[in-house]
Amino acid sequence: MSPPIEDAITILLVEPNPGDARLFSESFEDANIASDIHTVTDGEAALDFVHQRNDHAESPRPDMILLDFQLPDVDGADILSELKSERALRSIPVIVLTSSASEEDIARSYDLHANAYVQKPVEPDEFIDLVRSFENFWLTFVRLPGEQLS
Fold first, then answer.
1. H or E segment at 10?
2. In this structure, are residues 98 and 46 in contact, taking their beta carbons and an 8 Å threshold?
3. What does the pLDDT look like over 66-95, one tens digit per residue?
4. What are 10's strand-pairing partners?
5. Phi/psi of residue 29, nearest 5 degrees
6. Distance separating alpha carbons of residues 10 and 4, to the nearest angstrom
7. Do 34 and 9 meet the contact criterion of CB atoms below 8 Å apart?
8. Which three-class secondary structure state does DSSP give residue 134?
C-alpha cells in the first residue's frame, strides 16, 4: 500500500477477486483520481477495517465503500446491513458493485440502504469508464459527510 495522498478520498474496496481489485485500483490511477484505495477480500476484513480493529486498527475511516455482494464468508448484504444500522457508519456511501444483475439482489441492496447498485464491467476499458463516472458523480457533485460523532 502506498502512502496516503493529501486531500484524497479514502475508498474501501471489498473485492474477493484479485483481478477485479487490480483493475479498479489501476483504473483510479489511470483516471488520475486522488484516491487512497484500501482493498480487503472478505466480509470479516471489511468489518474489521470500518471498526478499526484487529489488523486494521490503524486504518483510516473510509469516505466511500465499494462492496461486492458475493463474498466468501460474511455476505455483502450482512455487511451493508451492519454499516447502515450503526450511527457512526451509516453516512458512508456504500456502492454495491457486483456481477449480479438479479432483480432480487438489486431490490435487497436498496432495501438495506445502499447508495447505489452497479453491475461490474466485463471489459477492462469499461472499468476506467466506471471509475470516471464515480469521479464525475460521487467525487465532483455529491457532498460527502465529514467525520461523524459516534
1. strand 9-14
2. no
3. 999 889 888 899 999 999 999 989 999 999
4. 36
5. -65, -45
6. 9
7. yes
8. helix
- Tell me the average pLDDT across 105-127: 88
Contacts (Cβ under 8 Å, ≥6 apart) of 109: 69, 77, 80, 96, 117
Partnered with residue 114 across adjacent β-strands are: none
Tell me what pLDDT residue 149 has: 40
pTM of the model: 0.85
Give the type of residue at 131: V
Rg of the chain (C-alpha set):
14
- Tell me the C-alpha distance between 120 and 114, whole Å: 16
The torsion defined by the Cα of 36, 76, 17 and 28, in degrees rounded to 10, comes to -30
| Burial (0-12, 13-18, 19+ Cβ within 10 Å), 86 | middle
Residue 4 DSSP label: P
Side chain identity, residue 98:
T
- Specify the pLDDT at position 9: 84
Residue 29 neighbours by CB under 8 Å, 6+ apart: none
Question: Quick one: cell of 33?
Answer: 483520481
